[in-house]
Write a structure and sequence with these properties.
Layout (H helix, E strand, L loop, with lengths): L1 E5 L2 H23 L2 E5 L3 H10 L13 E5 L1 E3 L9 H10 L18 H16 L8 E4 L24 E6 L4 E6 L1 H5 L3 E6 L5 H9 L17 E7 L4 H4 L3
Parallel strand pairs: 1-9, 2-3, 2-5, 5-8, 8-9
Antiparallel strand pairs: 4-7, 6-7
């Protein structure tokens, strides 16, 4: 695990964008394509806008990039809460990514069926080999959740590598999420976390005794690389050793 700590959120975003470019270039050189699972939320939106900006848009062979989603809310793709909609507006449309490169969760299906269908989609993409994303982008909630792996939900103990539905009590809504075993098969996982409101969660994940029901992001331990991109505020309790 590597920690990358920078003074400001803008620096964090720029360094993660550089990392994204490097991972994409390496994967395309190695096996002709780059598969990435995108994260939802406000922080990733700023990353996607940066990647689609003039500073970065010509640094990636976008025609060879394939996009998946680490989790999705059980809403239509046109809904303001849809992770697909956010990524589409911030990244996919500006880069003119073709529909054949984008693998969204079919939220027109009931949650359990949507999860099964997404598992099959992922398996078919990687067949005949193991489903192994080149990069999984993750965020971190102030309650220590990541993707839609929320505290005290059954999916935390799912040993299968796929997608699963999860009912989030605090949201009173279903979501579809990649399971921790599938995330952990990735070549690389990168957390994007900034802001003082995330400092306690970062400390729990990195320094507290293992308790995945309370701190689900502790489940993330990929076979490949694990990187945390943090600003000073989010890393403050870690760097102070508190």
């Amino acid at each position: 695990m590597l920690l990358h700590i920078f003074a400001t959120p803008d620096e964090v975003l720029d360094r993660l964008a550089q990392y994204f470019v490097g991972q994409a270039s390496q994967a395309i050189a190695d096996h002709g394509r780059f598969s990435v699972a995108l994260s939802g939320g406000n922080s990733p939106k700023k990353l996607y806008e940066l990647l689609a900006s003039p500073a970065y848009r010509n640094k990636v062979a976008w025609a060879q990039v394939y996009f998946f989603f680490g989790d999705e809310r059980n809403v239509p793709p046109t809904d303001a809460d849809s992770n697909y909609r956010m990524a589409n507006l911030a990244l996919l449309e500006p880069l003119q990514i073709t529909p054949s490169q984008v693998f969204a969760v079919d939220t027109s299906l009931p949650p359990a069926e949507a999860a099964r269908a997404y598992t099959q989609t992922i398996q078919a993409f990687f067949a005949p080999g193991e489903a192994r994303f080149d990069l999984v982008l993750l965020g971190l909630g102030d309650n220590s959740h990541t993707a839609s792996l929320f505290p005290h939900t059954p999916v935390l103990h799912d040993a299968s590598a796929g997608a699963r539905e999860v009912f989030v009590e605090e949201k009173q809504a279903y979501r579809i999420t990649l399971t921790a075993p599938l995330i952990n098969q990735a070549q690389a996982v990168a957390f994007l976390v900034y802001g003082a409101d995330k400092a306690t969660a970062v400390y729990h994940i990195l320094h507290d005794a293992r308790n995945v029901d309370e701190f689900p992001a502790q489940l993330i331990a990929p076979a490949g690389e694990l990187h945390w991109f943090l600003d000073d505020a989010a890393a403050s309790l870690v760097t102070k050793g508190q």
